[in-house]
Amino acid sequence: MALPEASLCLDRLLLSSFGANYGKQRSLGLVELRCGLRTLGNGTKRCGFRSVSFCRTDERKNLTKRSCFLRCKCQKADSVSGLTADDGRPTSLSINDGNTNGVGTVDGRKIEEEAWDLLKESVVYYCGNPIGTIAASDTSSSSILNYDQVFIRDFIPSGVVFLLKGEYDIVRNFILHTLQLQSWEKTMDCHSPGQGLMPASFKVRTVPLDGDDSVTEDVLDPDFGEAAIGRVAPVDSGLWWIILLRAYGKCTGDLSVQERVDVQTGIKMILKLCLADGFDMFPTLLVTDGSCMIDRRMGIHGHPLEIQALFYSALLCAREMLAPEDASADLLRALNNRLVALSFHIREYYWIDMKKLNEIYRYKTEEYSYDAVNKFNIYPDQIPSWLVDFMPARGGYLIGNLQPAHMDFRFFSLGNLWSIVGGLATVDQSHAILDLVEEKWSELVADMPLKICYPALEGQEWRIIAGSDPKNTAWSYHNGGSWPTLLWQLTVACMKMNRPEIAEKAVMLAERRISRDKWPEYYDTRRARFIGKQSRLFQTWSIAGYLVAKLLLANPSAAKVLITEEDSELVNAFSCMLSANPRRKRGQKGFKQPFII
C-alpha cells in the first residue's frame, strides 16, 4: 500500500533525526516536527517538514510538569481515507438456540459491518494521517475523563483488525509516533522513571497556530501515568508495543520498520528497563497495583500473571526482531537467561490443578532448607473454600500472583489466555486452561464473555484488598466484571490450540446482545446480565475485540502473526532444569578470588 506523501516525508525526517544521531536526540528528549500543508495552483497539496529541538514548561490545572510535544502544523482531516468496509467474506454464523434474552435470529454479518463502521469512526488523526483510535465514543456521557485519548493497550486489538484488513498505515504511524513519545521527559514530584517507559496514552490536541484560525497546530500530549488515576506507570504499554511491532512485520512482510535504528534502540530501551537488576529473587517482574489492564487497586501488586505473560511474549518477540550485532550480545544473553528462568518459574510454581491443589493442602510449613518443597512457605489454610468446588477434575490454570507466604488463587483471564498465546504455558497446560474454560463456562462466560477475573472480592475482603473502591464492587468492572474485549485473546488462544469451537461459541453468545447494548466497556453481575454501572458505550476495544475474533474465525491461519512458539533451545533448557535438581544447594559462581573488605 502506497504511503501518503506526508507520511513518506515524516519517515525520512524521523530516520534522519533519530538515525545516526539517535542517542544524542534522545538525550535532549525534545523534538518539534512542523508540517505545513498548502494547496498549490493545480489543486495538489505540498507537504514540508522542519525539525527544531525545543523544550517548554506547560502549565496545567492543578499540575505543573515538564512537557515536550511533537508538533505538526496542518489542516484538520475531515474524513477517514483509505479504509474500506467490504472484504468479501461469507456471512457469519447466525444463532437461535432458544435462549437469546429476547433476541431472535442474530445477523452476524450486519453486526460485523456495524462494528467495522464504528471502528473507522473512532480513528484519530495527526497531520492528516491516522495514528490510533480513541478509547470510547460515548456521546451520552457528560464526563469524558481520558476516554477521548489513544491508549496503547486499547489500540492493540484495533491495530490487529487494521492489519488483518490490510490497512497498514495506521499501525505503522502508531508504532513510530509512540516510539518518539518514549523519549519524552516524564516527571512526577521531581522524580523521573527509567528510560524506555512507554506512555499509557496520548491525546492529539488541535489548536489555532499563533491566533490564526485558518491554520491549526496538532500537538501530541502523552500521559506516562503522571495524570492517571492513582498515578501508576503503565508497565504493560512497552510490552504490548513490542508485540504489535512484531505482528506488523509478520502481517505485512515489511521488516524495514523493525530494522530502523530508532526502532531497534526503542526495543533495547524497553528490554533494559525490564531486565534491570534489582533486589528480587525471582525472574518475574515486580510491579505495583494497577500497572496493567487492571489499572485500579485490586490486590495484584507483586508478580501478577498478566504482566509475566506479556513480559515473556515480548521477550520472545524482541529476540526475533533484534538485529545481530556485537552491541546486543550481552542483552541477548540476559534475555535468553530470563526466558528460561521465567518459563520454569511460572510453569512450576503458578500452575494449579486438582493434583497440585491436593499437594498444597498437605504442605509442611516453616521449612528452612535449600531442599524445601514448600519454597514460598504457603500455609494450607490459604486455600479458599470457593476453590475446592471450583477446581474441576479436568483442567487447571495459572494462579494470579505468587509472593512469599501468599498465593492469589483467583483466575485472571488475560494472563492465562496470553500464557497460551505467548508459549509461557506448556502444551498440556494450555489445553488444561481451555478445558477449565469449558468446564466452568457458566462461571467464566455466563451471558457475556469474558470474566476479567474470578471470583469477585466481596465484603471485608473487598474493603481490605480493593480499598472499598466504589467502582470495583463485587462482580463489577475489574472485580469480576465481564469484558467483551477479551474475546480476541480467547480466540487467538483457541486458534493456537486448534480448538476454534470454544471461541465460536463465545462469539455467538456475544452477538446476542453486544450490538443492541451499544458495545459496552464491561458488564456487571455474576452472570453479566447488566451493562456495567459506569460502563462507557461504544467502547473501541469492545468493538475491535469482536472484530478480531470474527476475522480469525474466518481465517484461523492469520492468528500466527500474534502467536509465539517455544523454540527447541528453550525446551531443552527447561528439560535440563527439571531433570537436574532445581533445589540444588547454592554455590559460588566460579569466583575464586577472596573479597577484600
TrEMBL record:
Pfam families: Glyco_hydro_100 (PF12899). It catalyses: Hydrolysis of terminal non-reducing beta-D-fructofuranoside residues in beta-D-fructofuranosides. Its EC number is 3.2.1.26. It comes from the Eukaryota. InterPro entries: 6-hairpin_glycosidase_sf (IPR008928), 6hp_glycosidase-like_sf (IPR012341), Glyco_hydro_100 (IPR024746). The keyword Hydrolase applies. Keywords: Carbohydrate metabolism, Glycosidase, Hydrolase. It is an enzyme of class 3 (hydrolase). Invertase that cleaves sucrose into glucose and fructose. Belongs to the glycosyl hydrolase 100 family. This is Alkaline/neutral invertase. The lineage of its organism: Eukaryota, Viridiplantae, Streptophyta, Embryophyta, Tracheophyta.
